[in-house]
Amino acid sequence: MGKIVDEIADSSGIEVIIESDKTAPRCPHGPTLLFEKTSNGAGKGRRFYACSACRDRKDCHFFQWEHEKISEARMLAREEQNHSKMPLFTHKEYCSRFREFVSLPLEQRRFCVDCQLLILPGEWANHTKHKTLSDDITVQRLRRPSQLLCPLENKKCNAQYLFADRSCHFLLDMLSGLGYHKILCVGTPRLHELIKLRNMEGKSHTMKSLLLDIDYRYGQFYGQDEFCHYNMFNHHFFDEEEAVVFFQDFLCEEGAAKVVMVADPPFGGLVKPLASSFFKISMTWKKLQNNESDAAEMPIIWIFPYFFESRILECFPSFSMLDYQVDYDNHPLYKHGKTGRKQSPVRLFTNLSPKEIILPEDEGYRFCCVCERYVSAGNKHCPKCDTCPSKDGREWRHCDECARCVKPSWHHCSSCAHCALPDHPCGQSQIGCYNCGSQNHKLRACPKKHNKRRMQVRGGCGAQGLSKHIASKSTAKSKRKRTVT
To answer: Most buried pick, 134, 141, 207, 223, via CB within 10 A?
Structure first.
């Protein structure tokens, strides 16, 4: 992938540097990422390491300047901290516990809600003060762990919003129709769960799936050939070599067992680290197929909000965005049936051929013969742009002055010579931000534009926590200097 620099959509001036760095220090979430603090985009700033998965230091307090010398005592304390954050049991131990648990009579099965743990009779005494769920822990319920476990709700770390069954069934029917029988589920526990349920029902072609997820709780319910504890922001397998073996075995295609990856990252996650991890997965797949063609790519579906389209296409030029709206069971807004701006902004980005992906007509999708793909009901083909231009499900309109289609709420401003919202800061220099007029950032980095959106989407991995920490570090350093003098 080479060296990649990704500017966080924030006014803090922090960039993440993605490069081959095997010496990066580790936090409880695996190898850290290298960041750079800049000042209004001018020149190089000081670099530092921070957690790849958590951008708020309340969730992971790791911080280290690049080339900073770390004492042995601090290294030992860090290793102890990392070890303390590990799961209570290894994956093998979880599997052994699960077999023992399902062999128990129904009345002896206990699930501790506080610990999010299946507990055995000999452990009941340790959970007497905890909230336990002990009624009706049937095998059927154990087959749907995403409904038994409490979703993680920390918006700045690993918030979990789970696919609605509608979206899961669509994805599986579509992939099965295209001949894919092995699904690599990256951060999609609900999809992995439904694959196993459908296999048991025997109503469709049997599929195999492997779940890669940072939520180690799923290790209680799935074997080592079904689940790997994995961080998609740094391509880190927590079980190291053992998990990598199962991962590579799954990617091997034999006969008609075609593999496709479906990834649903936290929406606030940085695009470039995710793209780097997905690229590494694709390269591993390619090497295992012994395919010498440079044009061959691993089939991928990346599920992300439509307003990240330009960043995703920058990383994967072969991708295209489909109009299908993905909805979630436990998200207050991203649900099927909403209209206007309340519609789900989550889309499918894929290197699969768009004309081969049939979107459900009973939900209003139709086939555009000119674009050769299915589009949403409100996405009308523009003969001047020669495309179906809408990104958000609403019908866009063509602006002759701008020579392109724009959102229906935008109007052409003769002073600014471009379309914008009616209340935009008119007459501001185009060098800065069209939204608020600031000369210190561009539109995509405008905090006024993104703050409200971040409250609605999951996993807000912005740089605010890091920026505050850098400021506090500088303040503390100044105080120490004043004390010495």
So the answer is: 207
Global confidence as pTM: 0.84
Q: What are phi and psi of 67, to 5 degrees?
A: 65, 10
What order do you get walking across the sheet with 110-112 strand by strand?
Answer: 117-119, 110-112, 132-133
Q: How many residues does the chain have?
A: 485
User: What is the per-residue pLDDT across 209-246, written as a single tens digit (0 to 9) for each?
Assistant: 999 999 999 999 999 999 999 999 999 999 888 999 99
Output the DSSP codes for 191-259. Answer: HHHHHHHHHHHTSS---EEEEEES-GGGGGTS-TTTEEEEETTTTEETTHHHHHHHHHHHH---TT-EE
Could you give the CA distance from residue 215 to residue 113 in angstroms, rounded to a whole number? Answer: 16
Contacts of 327 (CB under 8 A, 6+ apart): 163, 164, 166, 167, 334, 335, 336, 344, 346
DSSP state of 83: H
Alpha-carbon separation of residue 393 from 365, 377, 379, 388 (angstroms): 10, 8, 6, 11
Q: Give the neighbor-by-neighbor strand order of the sheet with 47-50.
A: 4-7, 14-18, 33-37, 47-50, 63-65
What residue type is assigned to position 52 of the chain?
S
Q: What is the DSSP letter of 149?
A: S
Of residues 280, 289, 234, the one with CA closest to residue 259 = 289
pLDDT at 254 over 90: no
In 3D space, the residue among 371, 341, 337 whose CA is nearest the CA of residue 357 turns out to be 371
